[in-house]
Write a structure and sequence with these properties.
With 174 residues, the protein is an alpha+beta fold. 26% of the residues lie in helices and 39% in strands. It has one domain (2-165): Alpha-Beta Plaits (2-Layer Sandwich), CATH 3.30.70.
């Protein structure tokens, strides 16, 4: 099955790529920030792992256990990387970061590029096997609470998702 997915940011999205100056940012293609497909797949692995433990969810009913392998082998994100359609300029966010090490803990300052609210990521999710449309919708609906990218626990990277099944190209030709 194949799904068209549109994610509209309801909170800013932080960059995930380490840069030379110590910030995290985005890769760019032709001046447009992009998100590698592995970031979306990582999001799916975490979400499925959570929903597989929540009674009443489609993912729980499907008894998803080897979900990391399932995402790695049965889910493809296209295009790779995913372009981000900006609603405004890319900014910077400075935030505290607590680090624990052998000496105890200390506070550091983290700086990230940030994509503004209202920006949109559009891509396709191609699946094989027994993955249901309602399951894919459930995974991305969780992003309204969970988020994508860095500092999700701070409320960053949350989005409103639109998921639509796309007619399979092979089926159209037959």
């Amino acid at each position: 099955m194949e799904f068209e997915v549109w994610l509209t940011l309801v909170s800013p999205l932080l960059g995930t790529v380490p840069q030379e100056d110590g910030t995290t940012g985005f890769h760019y293609e032709n001046g447009v920030p992009v998100l590698p497909a592995y970031v979306v797949k990582g999001f799916l692995k975490e979400v499925i792992g959570t929903l597989a433990k929540v009674a009443g969810t489609v993912t729980f009913r499907k008894k998803r256990k080897a979900f990391k392998k399932m995402v790695a082998r049965q889910v493809e994100i296209l295009p790779d990387p995913v372009p981000i359609s900006l609603s405004g300029p890319v900014g910077k966010l400075t935030r505290p970061l607590w680090v624990s090490d052998s000496k105890g803990g200390r506070m550091l300052i983290a700086v990230s590029e940030v994509v503004p609210v209202g920006s949109v990521l559009g891509f396709r999710v191609r699946t094989i096997g027994d993955i249901l449309e309602e399951e894919v919708r459930e995974w991305f609906a969780y992003g309204e609470k969970y988020g994508l990218g860095r500092w999700r626990s701070g409320g960053y990277g949350r989005f409103k998702a639109e998921v639509k099944e796309v007619e399979d190209v092979g089926e159209r030709e037959n």
